[in-house]
Structures are given as C-alpha cells and as structure tokens.
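Deviations from the work plan: none for this task. Representative record:
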Amino acid sequence: MLSAALTIARKDLTLTLGRGSGLVQALLLGLLLVFVFSLSLQPGQRMTPQAAAAVFWMASAFCQVLIFSTLYAHEEVNGQRQGLVLAPAPVQSIWLGKALAGIGMLAAAQALFIPAVIVFLGQNVSALWPLGLGILAIADIGIVAAGSLLGALSQGQSAKESLLSIVLFPLLIPLFLGGIRIGTAVFSGALAEGAQSWFGIALAFDAIFVAAALALFPAVYNAEE
Amino acid sequence: MNSYEWIMYAGIAVWAGLGLYIFTLARRQSALSRRIAQMTRLADEEAAER
Amino acid sequence: MRNFLEKAPCAAPWLALAGGLALAACQWLIFVYAPVESTMGPPQKIFYLHLPLAWWGLISFFVVFLSGIAYIYSRKPVWDALSGAAAEVGLVLAVLAVLTGSIWARHSWGLWWTWDARLTTALVMCFVYAGYLIVRGLDMQPGRKALVCAVVGIVAFLDVPLVFLSARLWSYIHPPSISLEPEMKLTVAACTGAFALLWAGLTLFRFKLALDAQRLDQSAMERLMRRG
C-alpha cells in the first residue's frame, strides 16, 4: 500500500506542480488572507501574537481546501477515477497518496505563510520555535488526513470548494485551537499552561482521523461518476 | 432586566423554535400527502385503462 | 430490526402527546417545586431547559453515527432515512441549547458568548450538522448521497470528544459549579425524561416522512420503468 501511495503522490505532485497554477492559487489565497488581515492594523502597530497565529492557521485552512480540490480534480476527466480504483492496490492507498501529496504542498505553502505573518503582522519568533514546528507537523497530519477523506466526497459537485470548507472547518477546530495556542507561545515567548495537553489532543485527532479514513475511504471513493 | 424575564426569553426561544420546526414538518407532510393522492389517482387511471 | 424500524413511527403521535403533557407537568416542578439557586437566582432555572436540549441533541448525533455505520454495513435505505431524521432534530435541539446557554451566560457573566467548553462544543456541532444537512440537500445519485452522508455523520461524531476537550483546555472562563439540591436533581431528571418523549416523537415523525418520501420515489421510478 505504501509504494502505491508514494506513486500516486508522485503523480499528483508532478501534475500539480508541473502545471504551475495548482499550488500557486492556494499559495496566493493564503498570502492574500495574511495581507488583508494586516490592513486591520494601524501603521506601525503590531498584531497580538494570538491573532497572528489565528491568521496563519486560517490561511493554512483555506489553502488546504484548494489543495485537495485540485488533487482530486485530476481524476475527474476521461474516467481516470475508474482506472485508479481498478488498480491492483488497496483503495486506501489513494487516500494516503493524496494525503502525502497534500502535506507536501501544505508544508511548502506554510513555509511562505510564516515569513508573511512575521513581516505583515509584525511578529517575532521566540526560542519556543521547536514547539511551533512540532505542532505544525502534528496538526498538518490531521488536516491532510481529514482533508483527503472529505476532499473525495466533494468531487463532482459544482460548489466543491465551499462544500468542503463547510464540512471540514468545524471538524478541524481542535487542531486549530492547539495550533493557535502553541503559535501564540512561539510569537510571544510565553508558554501558557497545558501545552503538553494540546500536543496530546492533536495526536489523538490524528489517530482518530487516520483510522476513520482507512475504514471509510472505500465507501467515499468509488468508480461511480 | 428583571430575573424572571431572562427565563421568559429562554422559554420563548425554545417553544418558538420547536413550534417553527413542527410547522415545517407539517408542511412537508402536506406536500407528501398531495404526492400520495396524485400517485393513487394515476394508478387508478392506469388500472381503468387496462 | 428493519420491521421494528418501519413500524416504530406509528408511536410518534403518542410519544409527542406524552412528551407535551410531561413537559407541562415539568413547569410545576421548575417554577414551584425546585428551589431558587442562591448564587444565580431565578435565571438558573433556564438550566432545566438547557441541559435536556443539549443532552438530546448529543444523543441525536449519536443516532446519526450509529445509523451511518448501519447504512455502510447493510446499504439499506431505512438507515439513511433514520440518519437524516435524527440529524435534523439534533440540529434543532443543539441550536436551542446554544440559544438558551447564551441567554444564561448573558445574565450570569454579562456576555452573550463565553467560550465555555460545552457551549463551544454545541456550537461546533451545529455547524457540522448544518453542513451535513447541506450535503443531504445536494443533487446526487441517492445511493452515493446516502454513503457520503453516512461518512460525514460518523466522522462528525468522532470529533465531538476532541472538540469538547480542546474547548475545555482553551477557555479561561469556567462556569461556577452549581451544587444541585435533591429537588433540583429530580426536576432535571423529570425534564430530561419529558424531553426524551418529545425527542422520540419528533424523530419518529420525521423518520416516517423520510420513509414515505423514499417509498414514493420508489413507486414513481417503478411506474416510469413500466411505461418506458
């Protein structure tokens, strides 16, 4: 299953990055969000660390909606979905492959969002940055696990991006809350109580959603148009 | 605001909300009844033709 | 089990009637029998509506979760109908729980919203199940729509404990714990029981509507195929 997933991930990344427009749209949306929020500040004013962390995670959330819409749209023409489902690999390898491609693209986008937040929202990075990277990695796993599962269900709908956002965003709230709390600590340098608990919740989220995706993805993704 | 007014507003919210939902259910029931009557009529007409 | 499910909606009017009468009796318990709470005063009595609404909203979502699993396992449309009915009733009750909680918060802390873990969880559940009902309203092939809704319903319920835990960790405002006197406990139990009857009546009635609509669609399809 892993080799099939890696093949699918490589295919999707080649298709998306080869066309150029795939990741660029998602990136631009996130950067625009950061920039638009910076307009709420007076010249010379700095946003609070918590608000800046919240803007970062909102940009990531909207970015990943576009990422998974793009990734699943690859198979919507010429019956390619049928070919993928009929391939001699477990159906879950499609979920895993899309999730791997998604996490690569999301991480690449976030690598640009972080400097944008620092520059436009007037933030500093404290010595707690390893914690920030840790929660980023754990939260991204949960985001792509859920995004890859639910991205498949919104395919074929005319308003697939808004449908995916409506269904996915409330489910990701535990990850967003954890990401914002730890992000606040990274930008402010002050670690609030309960940081370990946030990592625990994020890991629990990842475990639950990966298990749910492995069990439920075959029901969501089949050859029917 | 007097203390009991708060309970009153909460009560108004609950019973108005439930009432509104039951009203929408009743409307859906009427629409279904109309469809059932129409299907029955069509079935009777087909039986008469045969 | 399927025969039971298809016959159960006949009990809906009686359950609703029993629920209505029980709730009427509960008004005496709430306003006469239960004492006034010393810290929060009379508005604390909103709790006797708020708690049952929240509980039965959550139980509705649990029914959506179970019937989603049953549908994926059996692919029988009756489970999809039950899932849709429970989601709708659950959403109504959850919205009312959020409204009453907000009114109570306004009186107690002067704020309409407090990021209290339970209120936040209820609000997130409202959003999730509103999304679920939007998916239900889409123009999709019926079998696929039922599968998609089942998956969303399962995943949404799995998220409930995570949302609750994260909201509890997040919120700084913890509502003062109310120590319930025996009369208050009895009133809460009675109101929860009365709402149980009302919930059952509403859910079964909505379930019956969904089953009837499914049967009508089936008959219309058969008729078209006979003519075509």
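Chain B has one helix and no strands.
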